[in-house]
Amino acid sequence: MKTSQILNILLAGALVILSIKIVFDSKKSAENGVPEEGVIETIMTRTSIRDFQNKPIEEEKVETMLRAAMAAPTAVNKQPWRFIVIKDKKTLKAISENFNSMKMAEKAPLAIVVCGDLNATLEGEGTEYWVQDASAATENLLLAAHSLGLGAVWCGIYPIKQRVGQLKDMLAIPDSIVPLNVIPIGYPAENPEPKDKWNPSKIHYEKWTEN
After folding, report:
1. pLDDT tens digits, one per residue of 112-154
2. Which pLDDT value is given to residue 128?
3. Of 156, 117, 138, which Cα lies nearest the Cα of 69?
């Protein structure tokens, strides 16, 4: 057998193996709820979900969401974010009953409270960077949830003092920790269309100019 024929056979075999691997990986991604189109598709199709199935979330997915949150950018690498994972149905029901904007929490299998640790922030005027850091972590968490086939919604707490104080009392949160938001999460029981928020009139180039 000629060398060229051997090479052609080897190449054909490699292509078959590669094709099988691509199909397998695609199926695996689909089973895990990961959009095959990639990161941009995940960003553009994410939307707030306020109704959930009566179905628990796998522990590995909870950890994946938290890992994604902690992969967010953070000022001077301070990483002031802190997280409270709530699965207790009584607590979720209490949140639902005490916050009008969080009625969906009662149906969620879990919620994650994203907080900022004031003892882990920059000093002086940079202290408030914890809000940006925790917000970046929240967005990562929301995108990770969507990519895993889950639904979630950002429910604001900070900076409304009454809401901050009420949630701190409910969850025994210490003085140095400030809850930024509550994120109810679960398998979606609804399928709302993502909003198209693209608006070129809100973009300025080089300098601020009136459009």
Report:
1. 999 999 999 999 999 999 999 999 999 999 999 999 999 999 9
2. 97
3. 138
Q: Which helix (H) or strand (E) holds 117?
A: strand 110-117
How many helices (H) and strands (E) are present in the chain, helices listed first? 6, 5
Residue 153: name the closest of 46, 49, 44 by CA: 49
Environment class of 186 (CB within 10 Å of its CB; exposed 0-12, middle 13-18, buried 19+):
buried
Give how far Cα 73 sits from Cα of 76, 79, 136, 164, Å: 9, 8, 7, 24
Looking at the DSSP bridge assignments, the partners of residue 178 are 116
What number of other Cβ atoms are within 10 A of residue 201's Cβ?
A: 6
Tokens of 182: 């509550």
